[in-house]
Amino acid sequence: MNMRGFSALKHVKTMGCLSQPEIYRILAMASQMKRRPNDFREVMKHKTLLMLFEKPSLRTRLSFETGTTQLGGHAIFYSVADSPLGKKENIHDTIKCASRFVDIMMARVNKREVIAELAEHANIPVINALDDWGHPCQILADFQTIQEKFSTKSLAGLTMTYMGDLDNNVTYDLARGAMLLGMNFKMAGPAESDFQFSPKALEECNALAEIGG
């Protein structure tokens, strides 16, 4: 597996943590894995993934655990309901301990502050499997689907329209990713304040649009 172009310790907190070249490298590798799964049967041999769940999800657990097994690795499921994160042990101590035993962590949590603190103190890569500020794994899967349906590698110039609740992790990360890839992003939602796109996220997207064009 060719991972050139990625830093030794790379956290994925939101789509904004990735560059355009990194996104396309991830999508290209995902495409290779889908076409030739047998070529990747041992890329995680002797590697362990810790799956930290504060917010439960059957599909997220199945996809990460099955994927790790198919890549030759081992996944450990840990529910925060069994030992509340940041209460019995603080987040700093939790991730420092985990960093000594496992090779990578994914976390599905309620608040962005938890992902930020995990990444700050981790000696292993941390992947955000959902918080209130981002959902990068889903967005990468969305982009792979778009590539396949449009039979194109580059998504630059395509227009994506999102309709619904604009104040949520999926909308934020779709917009971040679209800006990085040079896509046009349109959104429409209810006028009530509870459904509005975050001004802070909009500032971030404007900055990413300068990078992605």
What does this structure look like?
The protein is built from seven helices and six strands. The chain starts with 19 loop residues before the first helix and ends with a helix. The longest helix has 16 residues, at 20-35. The protein is of the alpha/beta class. The strands form two sheets. A four-stranded parallel beta sheet has the order 2-1-3-4, with helices on both faces. Strands 5-6 form a two-stranded parallel ribbon. It has two domains: 15-130, Aspartate/ornithine carbamoyltransferase (Rossmann fold); 136-207, Aspartate/ornithine carbamoyltransferase (Rossmann fold, 3-Layer(aba) Sandwich). It is 43% helix and 15% strand.
CATH class of the largest domain: Alpha Beta
The portion of residues forming beta strands comes to 15-25%
Distance between the termini: 30 Å
| SSE pattern, N- to C-terminal | HEHEHEHEHEHEH
Low-confidence stretches: 1-6
The helix count comes to 7
As a percent range, the share of helical residues equals 40-55%
The helix/strand class is alpha/beta
Average pLDDT = 92
Overall morphology? globular
Look at the structure and name the CATH superfamily of the largest domain: Aspartate/ornithine carbamoyltransferase
Would you identify the CATH architecture of the largest domain? 3-Layer(aba) Sandwich
